[in-house]
């Protein structure tokens, strides 16, 4: 274990470093004590609902992601075998590029005992064992019901475990601005990030969260920026998919987001504009969609989910930073369509409560 940790430390890079591969460069950005690439690899898809995962092939594919500079993996204690797969990968990976594992502490809804050290520590110890590390790189805390104020106790216990060396950094996931501020201010605990949905059509972070994060140096880790794959050439000019065609949990989830925002016809108008911008830079619609969010204030990284052993998107992810970025004219064209929609109501994470 000591040797593993020493190798882990040697791979950390300064903030100014970049990863160059296939003609593209991914910038590194600071999150707490870490310097991470602006694209990190999500592992929600291994939890089920996205096709059967071959774990051996998944580990081999993770090695390719890491060699390509995409070796920061985001997972959770509730993402099925994600932590175990990461542990297998970490034991086998021999490359020099940065490798980090960001996991989550997600107590069950209505669970008791999360205000006790025994329950919180046992969960953290389970993640450490699964991932094969003595110190978790980051634990991101989720809470289902704000009426249950035990989340203050849970966060304080997580911080105690951080001070004891079991956790390096603490973040949040799907917290709204109000309750993120309460935790930060009333517990006086350094939170380095909040992981929330953020896309071209879901701009809820811009209502209050971005300003708060900039003021307190808390970074946003954005997910859902590709709307589960809808923001791609695959759906340009296509009729509205029927329910039986929504073959993954991601597609079902983000189709509801599209419907709430403005519907399929307006979404086709948006895809057409994104296609024109993509052609201008000789990249894909997905690249434009991710870059739009990646360059937003307070955003440290965009999480792009990987259907490990089923579909690989390494080259596509690398291409996201192969062009200078969107200019004011590009952004104006996008906003002209987006603002025809209804917008997504509420604050970040409201859909989970």
Automatic annotation (TrEMBL):
SUPFAM superfamilies assigned: NAD(P)-linked oxidoreductase (SSF51430)
Basic and acidic residues compositional bias, start-end: 1-13
Alphabetized InterPro entries for the sequence: NAD(P)_OxRdtase_dom_sf (IPR036812), NADP_OxRdtase_dom (IPR023210)
Gene3D superfamilies reported for this sequence: NADP-dependent oxidoreductase domain
Domain NADP-dependent oxidoreductase: 39-338
Region feature (Disordered): 1-21
Protein name: NADP-dependent oxidoreductase domain-containing protein
Organism lineage: Eukaryota, Viridiplantae, Streptophyta, Embryophyta, Bryophyta
